[in-house]
Amino acid sequence: MKLFLKTKDFSVSKEDFELHLDEDLDMLVTNPQPEDIAAYYESEDYISHTDSKKSFTDKLYQAVKQKNLRNKIQLIENQHNNPNTLLDIGAGTGDFLVMAQSKGYDVAGVEPNDGARQLALQKGVALEPKLDGFSGTKFQTITLWHVLEHLPNLQDQISDITSLLEEDGTLIIAVPNFKSFDAKHYGSYWAGYDVPRHLWHFSKTSVSKLFDRHGMEVASIRPMWFDAFYVSMLSEKYKGNKWYLPNAFFVGLWSNIKAVSSKEHSSLIYILKRRK
């Protein structure tokens, strides 16, 4: 693999990393990949493991999260006639599963971070620390919302995940898209890279090829419109721009406008089914 970009961990360690291009899969790979990756999540700045509302960014994230949660539930309901079994991998503090449970779903979740699991438990959702706790169980819907890019041993993990899916089930995966306009605009400052927590960086081609090896095909792709604004806001902050809000708004807006024709949104939701 050849060097694609040099970047750094802007949010926690400030360490330097490289992104290498896997040309066959059309995917970027973070290098090096730390052995003790958990240490890079131990920060109050890692908002998906907290319910923080301290800063303006935190409050904005939490407010938009509520709308996104409703959109996610609607997306799942569009795939099946009746509520059924749902597994959320990388469940964070459990808000998505809490809402799904209120809609009649039989829910389960995986979250390796102990602090996030404790917050979820306070909301009435008990999460497993590892996926192997569900060995032999089948689910109608499995979701990974910005999680696949965090998983080590990617091929093994995909094999384990797909083995838990009902034959007619639906796998829903949301990941950043390094081919988006905002990714190209910000380059090494693009917050969607989020090294080293993001080990892999996907394109449409890479998602299709990776899951094809496991008997899965992409049935449809949906955009995550807000991500262009949020990722641009973080990217502007990484650049040290005190006018990060207006700049982020215009970059995010232009990224979404460009994506109307290119279909290369800042983040994409892939809906996958078993290949017939």
TrEMBL record:
Assigned keywords, A-Z: Methyltransferase, Transferase
InterPro entries linked to this entry: SAM-dependent_MTases_sf
CDD domains referenced in this protein's UniProt entry, alphabetically: AdoMet_MTases
GO molecular function: methyltransferase activity
Gene Ontology biological process terms, A to Z: methylation
Transferase found in the keyword field: yes
Ranges in coiled-coil conformation: none
Protein name: 2-polyprenyl-3-methyl-5-hydroxy-6-metoxy-1,4-benzoquinol methylase
Organism name: Flagellimonas taeanensis
High-level lineage: Bacteria, Pseudomonadati, Bacteroidota, Flavobacteriia, Flavobacteriales
